[in-house]
Protein: Fe2OG dioxygenase domain-containing protein
Organism: Scyliorhinus torazame
Amino acid sequence: MDTQSCRPCELQCHSVHQAPATVFYIPNFITASEENYLLQQVYNSPKPKWTQLSGRRLQNWGGLPHSKGMLAEKLPVWLDNYAKKISSLGPFEGKVANHVLVNEYNPGEGIMPHEDGPLYFPTVTTITLGSQALLDFYHPIEREAEEGEVYFPQTEENRYFLSLLLEPRSLLVLQDDMYMKYLHGIRPVMEDIVTEKVANLKLCNTKLGAVLRRTTRISLTIRYVPKVLKTTILLGR
Ligand SMILES: O=C(O)CCC(=O)C(=O)O
Ligand SMILES: [Fe+2]
């Protein structure tokens, strides 16, 4: 058998066709021992690395993205290895990820629907550790109805249209409309209910109707920030 033949489809053959363009989902992208190793590294990081937000804690690695350019810092080796491994699958069009956000969610915590904004190359890759969560997708809020148009209330509930189940050890890749057009969020709930809205259900180790208790979830969102400042310019000021 030609073992090379699967190479170009490393991402392609994990495409989630039941969602708008483009979603790749790879269950068990890392092993349980890699998961434990990554969790250890996250929790061994110095305490000041954590920023407490409403509903989650986060660590920022690689520098703070900024419209004028990110003052890049080297990623620690434990993150850089995964940044390189994921980048080699091609999601950043040949560039290597240089930025990682580590999010920690306790059961009942989440993140409001949002867009990731223009500072990143429009692709996010996410490794999930510890607990599953549903990542929910929403249509953007539409402009107000003009004269003669019927006003349709834009509640969060009726803007919601699809979820992706992010299982521990999985890799998610979001691009195109799923990154740029729609909003994503995680509901602050104690359990995730697997409904027919879960677009990657066929690729998951669960079934319709399952009720999955949340434990603490860590996500590594690994991205490429194209606009980087050269350190020397700043040192010269
Ligand atoms: O934890 C996640 O998977 C999502 C995090 C997220 O949306 C973000 O950091 O922008
Ligand atoms: Fe996000």
About this structure: The chain is about 20% helix and 30% strand. The first strand starts at residue 23 and ends at 26.
